[in-house]
Design a protein that fits this description.
Layout lengths: L45 H7 L8 E6 L5 H14 L4 E5 L4 H11 L6 E5 L3 H11 L3 E5 L16 H18 L2 E6 L12 H5 L2 E6 L6 E9 L7 E7 L2 E4 L3 H6 L9 E8 L2 E13 L7 E4 L3 H15 L6 E7 L11 H13 L7 E3 L2 E2 L5 E2 L4 H10 L4 E5 H4 L9 E5 L2 H5 L3
Parallel strand pairs: 1-5, 1-6, 2-3, 2-4, 4-5, 12-13, 14-17, 17-18
Antiparallel strand pairs: 6-7, 7-8, 8-9, 10-11, 11-13, 15-16
Length: 423
């Protein structure tokens, strides 16, 4: 624990420069409040616009977090390129790279308009003065952990410096109606480094997820004052930058083996978007006293719970077996709707029986072995039919409410035992 000494000095912190005397705020009734839709600037990247709720809101403050090398700076540089081409004045402020490094990365992405201006600076006073003089439509700060204010004696990236820097940028965004994007470093746990108040202060928090060694990237909104927090955007990293994946289901199922046991397709909802993904399971006898269990892409404890339900309710003895569960494609899903798919994949591998390649299953499994209903079942079935699946195993409570979808047979199951009879 290191004590931080904060000297306020004679100046007024938190953006006191250039502020007039405070006007008295007056309360207003609900009937006087306007609810007009916010104006939005489209980024020409449909996946990003979807996560933002329809586009960039003028005067908003957005925090973008993610692992090192995941593509945060590349994504924002592509946004700068599209917005500058539309005539917007864009200011890119980097505290981590030189102008030459940014130029090298920009050359891979294509031609840039002169509307984009670059600045390499970490002093918050200079950054504030530059934003006030340039008056850009969009400002990128890469990254917030490199910004510092001289009046605060602690080092850049400390709690005091990050809080103060974010406060100044927030007042600039609201006062000048400038859309500000902040890049934030993440900790080993995957959360944005710095004080928790950082996420409370901003309007939108986006997390860029994915394996840096794989080609896919997932942009997830975890907070959004101007839209839904359940939407995701899927990108593929290529040499020319991030390319949008318009049909994630088809992308996730590419390369799926045919006629293999322990493999099944399930459906998860990410906001309003149904995404089909392949669930793989491998169950084999263990040569050790304690069997090994491992899951990739889903909750490890959930897999253990489902295996316990299968042993208790179906008599499938797997106490001496190693078990591995993998969500192919690299997505991480925690929605309970994929329970039925995981259970069927485990039993398929244990019995060494392949599941029909054109079958899809989804549903939540309870401790009594019952299959519970899930939300938005109609959209899931429609997505499966669109991609050529012919059979859909769903909870019986959902089957009774579903409308007929042409080209696909819907089978309702009440318990895990009913579902396993299909294998």
């Amino acid at each position: 624990m290191v004590e931080e000494r904060v000297s306020t000095g004679s100046g007024n912190l938190s953006g006191g420069k250039g502020r007039s005397s405070h006007a008295a705020a007056k309360p207003a009734s609900l009937s006087e409040v306007s609810i007009q839709e916010e104006e939005r600037m489209h980024t020409h990247m449909e996946e990003l616009d979807r996560v933002l709720g329809g586009g960039i809101v003028p005067g908003s403050l957005t925090l973008v977090g993610g692992d090192p090398g995941i593509g945060k700076s590349t994504l924002l540089l592509q946004v700068c390129r599209h917005m500058a081409a539309d005539g917007c004045k864009v200011l890119y402020i980097s505290g981590e790279e030189s102008l030459r490094q940014i130029k090298i990365r920009a050359n891979r992405l294509g031609e840039f308009s002169d509307k984009l201006q670059l600045l390499c600076e970490t002093n918050l006073e200079i950054v504030e003065d530059t934003i006030r003089s340039v008056m850009p439509d969009i400002t990128i700060i890469d990254s917030i952990q490199t910004m510092y204010r001289e009046e605060i004696s602690s080092a850049p990236g400390s709690v005091s410096q990050v809080r103060e820097s974010t406060s100044v940028l927030l007042q600039l965004a609201k006062g000048l109606n400038v859309s500000v994007f902040i890049v934030g470093h993440v900790t080993k746990e995957g959360t944005v480094a710095g004080p928790r108040v950082l996420e409370h202060m901003v309007d939108t928090v986006l997390y860029f997820e994915g394996d840096r060694h794989a080609s896919y990237r997932i942009l997830r909104g975890v907070k959004n004052r101007f839209g839904s927090t359940n939407e995701i955007g899927v990108f593929e990293m290529k040499e020319e930058g991030l390319i949008e994946v318009k049909n994630p289901s088809e992308f996730m199922l590419s390369g799926r083996p045919e006629g293999a046991n322990g493999s099944i397709v399930s459906c998860s909802m990410e906001g309003t978007r149904p995404i089909l993904l392949e669930i793989q399971a491998l169950v084999c006898h263990s040569s050790f006293g304690i069997p090994r269990r491992q899951s990739i892409g889903t909750d490890f404890n959930r897999v253990n719970l489902l295996m316990a339900v299968l042993e208790k309710r179906l008599g499938v003895q797997m106490s001496d077996c190693d078990a591995y569960v993998n969500l192919a494609g690299g997505m991480r899903i925690v929605e309970p709707a994929i329970d039925l798919g995981i259970a069927m994949a485990i039993v398929s591998s244990f019995k060494n029986r392949a599941i029909d390649d054109k079958l899809i299953a989804f549903g939540e499994i309870g401790l009594s072995g019952e299959v519970r209903g899930v939300s938005m079942a109609q959209q899931r079935v429609a997505e499966a039919a669109k991609l050529g699946f012919t059979t859909c195993v769903v909870p019986e409570v959902d089957r009774s409410r579903l409308k007929t979808v042409e080209g696909i047979k819907v089978i309702g199951v009440k318990t895990v035992k009913d579902a396993m009879e299909l294998i």
